Amino acid sequence: MTKALAYLRVSGKAQVDGDGFPRQHDTIHRYAKAHGVDVVDEYRDEGVSGTKDLDGREGLGDLMTRLRSNGIRLVLVERADRLARDLMVGEVLLAEFRKLGVSVVAADSGTDLTAGDDDPTRVLIRQVLGAVSQFEKSVIVTKLRAARLRKRTETGRCEGRKPFGTKPGEAETLELIRRLRRKPRGGERLSFDAIAARLNAEGVATRTGKAWAGATVYGIVKRR
Predict the structure, then answer these.
(1) What's the pLDDT score for residue 207?
(2) Do 134 and 87 contact (CB within 8 A), yes or no?
(3) What does the pLDDT average to over 118-143?
(4) Residue 186, pLDDT above cutoff 80
(5) For the whole model, what pTM was predicted?
(6) Which of helix, strand or coil describes residue 43?
(7) Is residue 123 within 8 Å of residue 131, measured between CB atoms?
(8) Mean pLDDT of the chain
(9) What is the pLDDT of residue 72?
(10) Closest CA to 89 of 32, 145, 127, 125
(11) CA-CA distance, 224 to 205, in Å (whole number)?
């Protein structure tokens, strides 16, 4: 049987425990079984963007090192964008595989991604796959951005750090800050630095455990 290595990648840390790796594994091994290929090992990059080249991928780098020493000349990926979503990065990586005399095959379509540059049809197919991958990624990013904007319009917030006062125990501190900030009748309003000093003197905890500062109090008051 022809021996091969498998390469799997997911781009987001949240995807590491999702169905990305099992799906890629199953697609690769179905192809291997149907074509008499023995997958002797798998290499993975977890939470690594498909726009990064070899310098940013430990798993792919280890796979390349293995190829230089063991004589295996076939690598299977689930589809073209698991190797790279960026067309230029993909072409650079495929050129490295060609230098080693290694074929990279997309298991979902059976396309040889490392087809020689002397075959215009295969080169076109490879580049179309890469371009489609880039387009799909752009569409996803655009949809997510639109969803965030819609949610922000509806609720006033979408992502990011939750404002002070939303976590357990912070509501009382927020009320104390507001009370200290109110201008008393016939008196002067406390400065943000003075409020911070008061909170520290009373042993009121910050979210991070650090001492209160006037700038921190200012940020909380202005955000609310």
Answers:
(1) 80
(2) yes
(3) 60
(4) no
(5) 0.52
(6) strand
(7) no
(8) 80
(9) 92
(10) 127
(11) 19
192 within 8 A of 210, measured Cβ to Cβ: no
Report how far residue 181's alpha carbon sits from residue 192's, in angstroms, rounded to the nearest whole number: 8
Output the six-digit token pair for 68.
Answer: 């230089």
CA distances to 18, 66, 79, 166 from 104, rounded to whole Å, are 25, 15, 10, 51
Measure the CA–CA gap between 21 and 3, rounded to whole angstroms: 21
Lowest mean pLDDT among 25-34, 109-118, 136-145, 196-205: 136-145
Residues 6+ apart with CB under 8 A from 159: 148
Average the pLDDT over 39-43 and give the result: 94
Ranges 11-15, 55-59, 154-158: which has the least confidence = 154-158
* CB crowding 119-128: b at 16 or more within 10 Å, else e: eeebeebbee
The CATH superfamily of 2-143 is Resolvase, N-terminal catalytic domain (3.40.50.1390)
76, 105 contact by CB (below 8 A): yes
Q: Report the DSSP pairing between strands 111-112 and 103-106.
A: antiparallel
Give the start-to-end residue ranges of the domains of the chain. Answer: 2-143, 170-223
Residue 196 scores a pLDDT above 60: yes
Question: Tell me, what amino acid is at 14?
Answer: A
Of 207, 116, 140, which is closest to residue 167 (Cα–Cα)? 207
